[in-house]
Amino acid sequence: MRNCSAAMTSPRPILISVHLPKTAGTSFQDSLRAAYGARLQLRYKERPLHRSPGERQRRVIRGALQHALFGLRDDSVDCIHGHFLPASYARIRGRSPVRYVTWFRDPVERLVSHYHYWLRSYNGAQAGALHRQVVEENWSLEAFVFAPALRDLYSAFLWRFPLERFDFIGITEHYSDDLAYFSEHFLEQTVPEVRHNASPQGDENSTAIDGELRRRIERFHSKDMSLYHRALELRAARSGA
Question: What does pTM read for this prediction?
Fold first, then answer.
């Protein structure tokens, strides 16, 4: 099987990898680093969750215009991975083809994981405004999952970027199989599977949520539930199931 660097001939394709929070994106980052090395650029400083929708969208528009007019600042970058809205990379001057990838997770499971991760990882000196508010105001899980600022996170990240535009959507619940598929079809090499940010046993057990609460969460995050089910359909079509 060809080495990844040998497969990337001129014009070099660029991979835009959107890390939706608590969908195994940190683990995926290590696999990308194994494939791209110094050609991987991480983008985590933007912190979309800690900005208002209007500010997020203005930054996306500015970024999209910049990339369309001037391309990337560093022409040696072949993969960008992090917390950002993909619409800011909808067109990149001088780089073709561009491939977009992300991972999805059951929205209820993702919310529970996100809540517990923020509690145990809190650092007041580095946390964003929303993270500080959740911890310092001692939010309950229920307050967290029904917070307007956290409603339909997938939909917020995918503003002006249709789901079908992604070339690959992995499903965290099928991480091993989907990483193997991605490695074969996008990297043309095998990359290591690494697991990061695993919770202490039982810490994020969403089975403790009763059926009625789960249904309320699913209704509140109905846009994300629809996106998740569509992602599952796309995965099934990809697998020929």
Answer: 0.90
